[in-house]
Amino acid sequence: IRTVKALHAIRRNREAILPCTGKLLTYAGDSGRSVIRPIHETVQKYFMESRNTQENIKISRYFPTCKASHHQLAMACMAYLQLDFFLNGPIVGSENLHKLYERYYSDINLAPYACFFFGKHISKLQNFPPEIKVSMNGVLSSPEPAIAAILQCQRLQGLARNYLGGEAASSLPGNSTMLLYSTSLYEILQLHEPHSTWLQLPPPKFSIHQAAICNVVGMVLRLADKGQDINEPDLQSKTPLIHAAACGHYHLTSCLIEYGAQVNFHHNSKGTALYRACASSGNRLGIIKLLLDHQ
């Protein structure tokens, strides 16, 4: 499936398709049945549930183990990322936030999930299968407009439930290295392909901010150790700490404070990390207490 038209044809048969996903996907709350989301927080949770019913026994043939599920989900996510849909490039301008949501959550329902979680599924694999390597290189070798759209969609998934303005509509350069640094792929390549040319490329500006949105704690700290300023605001006047607090990433928020992030930083009246945490729908109580303790 390479076109949005083909995906629209599938959407008309969602009632028949959803049961085929092994109960891993469902409709999202009160979204008018237009958004599909994972039904479980983790694949492990899926396998911890009772599987004694006849339906679950049938499902086990398609998802027999956690490893097999992560493999299939990683391949499916990367197939999404190579859709022609992304070749149109990102949507520019915060005034187009509604258009942005409509495009990524209505046109292809699983695009935000694929952009945000494909690296996490790969990181759960114990080895680095050849087909995963080929697909991953295919994603990283995508044209610049496609990479920029993937980064925007990834950013949207991280920010959509927490930021009230149009920050999610911000556009990043179509840099494959930015995508590499905002996922678990860097660590995966370092472990399995230490001589990969992707690892030789320097991190682009604001990589640490994208990694903070995506909650890649190890990468945020690695970039800080490499000299990226954890108190530098990005194009939306947000520091990595503000992004982490707004997205509900408690552990990352704590790590950034330990690394010397300025808790009370604000720029252009955009609000401090505490202000953003209060407006967040994530783990805000713990983060609010953490930020208050370091005032």
N- and C-termini, Cα separation = 52 Å
Q: Tell me the number of helical segments per DSSP (H or I, 4 or more residues long).
A: 17
Spell out the helices and strands N to C: HHEEHHHHHHHHHHHHHHH
Strand content: under 5%
Q: How many strands appear in the DSSP assignment?
A: 2
By secondary-structure content and strand pairing, the structural class works out as mainly alpha
Range of helix content: 40-55%
Q: State the strand order across the main sheet.
A: 1-2
Biggest sheet descriptor:
2 strands, antiparallel
Give keywords.
295 residues; mainly alpha; two-stranded antiparallel ribbon; 52% helix
Please explain how this structure is put together.
The protein has 295 residues and is mainly alpha-helical. It has helices at residues 4-11, 14-17, 43-48, 54-59, 66-81, 97-107, 111-123, 130-140, 144-159, 176-181, 185-192, 207-213, 217-225, 240-246, 250-258, 273-278, 284-293, and strands at residues 25-27, 36-38. It has 17 helices and 2 strands. A two-stranded antiparallel ribbon has the order 1-2. Helix 5 crosses helix 7 (111-123) and helix 5 runs parallel beside helix 8.
